[in-house]
Amino acid sequence: MSDNQGAMVDLRRGPWTLEEDSLLVHYIALHGEGRWNLLARSSGLKRTGKSCRLRWLNYLKPDVKRGNLSPEEQFLILELHSRWGNRWSRIAQHLPGRTDNEIKNYWRTRVQKQARQMKIDSNSSLFADAVRCFWMPRLLEKMQASSYSSSSSTTTATNNSNTSCSSYSMVNGCLPLSCGNSNEKKSHEVVVVNQSGSELMFNNSLTSSEMMNEMPSSNSSLMDDDELGPLLMENSLMENDESWAMDEFWHARNVHEWGGGM
DNA sequence: AATGCGAGCAACCGCGTTTGA
DNA sequence: TTCAAACGCGGTTGCTCGCAT
Q1: Is the residue at A201 inside a domain?
Q2: A91 and A35 belong to one structural domain
Q3: Which end of chain A, N or C, is less surrounded by CB atoms within 10 Å?
Q4: Is residue A14 domain-shared with residue A85, that is, in the same domain?
Q5: What DSSP line would sit under A19-50, residue for residue?
Q6: Which residues 6+ apart lie within 8 Å of A101 measured at CB?
Q7: Which H or E run includes A197?
Q8: Residue nearest to nucleotide C13 (CA to C1')
């Protein structure tokens, strides 16, 4: 019966008011974070310590980033979720300013929605494959487009002098569906830059047919934990365009007969 | 204009883990 | 070492808002 102070007097629930937010922010400014139950008792807030903690971490904390997730962030979420599953907090550690709650909500509202629309179990390997082979390449294209659009100025990612469209490919055997430059095809790798400035390399050089013959399992990654970090692409474009080539996915699925029937 | 419905998100709950007395 | 309190995580709920009818 640890933190169930709800047994006690009139604790407030539901949405926070401006006054409550202000109280919480003031208290933390004076006393710092932590000791949430003490905070709840001492601050004058009629909330549980848990509620205060959640409100602070998910909403009031100054470095909480709000707004749509960039393609880079979405890409990271998909990649990390494929490795770690629903370890939201762990995933959130690699997306600065994003909370586990936000990432969890993203997964449930966007990713699982896609799975529902495709009538695939979002936990199935089939869906994981679809994500890797059709969604993630789309995000890469977006990332790339945004880095190009801002290439000459402040971009901090992917645009090494030798990084052209053709240098991109997918993780775990999945190639992008289309990749701009058709005149050449170099090594297939995705380079993104983490916060410390080091490059993260997603490397693979399978052909599309090889890919289809060897659909990836949704584990393993070429990234090490240490290498994972916030993607620093600025100027990222973000529209809520989750269109990720359903037609192409179904076509590929039918042609290659991978996966069960609907 | 009113109503219904679904998507998105903030907040709550239960439980396992950590901390410290 | 033990145990209660606090913390943190992941799942779930429920509210709000926008859109369709």
Answers
A1: yes
A2: no
A3: N
A4: no
A5: HHHHHHHHHHHHH-S--HHHHHHHS---S-HH
A6: A54, A58, A88
A7: none
A8: A14
Same domain, A181 and A153: yes
Structural domain contains residue A213: yes
On whether both A110 and A212 belong to a single domain, the answer is yes
- The whole-number Å distance from A135's CA to C19's C1' is 27
Q: Pick out residues whose CB falls under 7 Å from strand B.
A: A 2-4, 6, 12-16, 47-48, 50-51, 54-55, 58-59, 66, 68, 101-102, 104-106, 108-110, 113, 240
Question: Nucleic chain C: which protein residues 29-88 of A have CB below 7 A from it?
Answer: 34-38, 49-50, 53, 86-88
Quote the radius of gyration of chain A (alpha carbons, Å). Answer: 22
**Closest nucleotide (CA of A60 to C1')?**
B10
Mean pLDDT across chain A, nearest whole number?
62
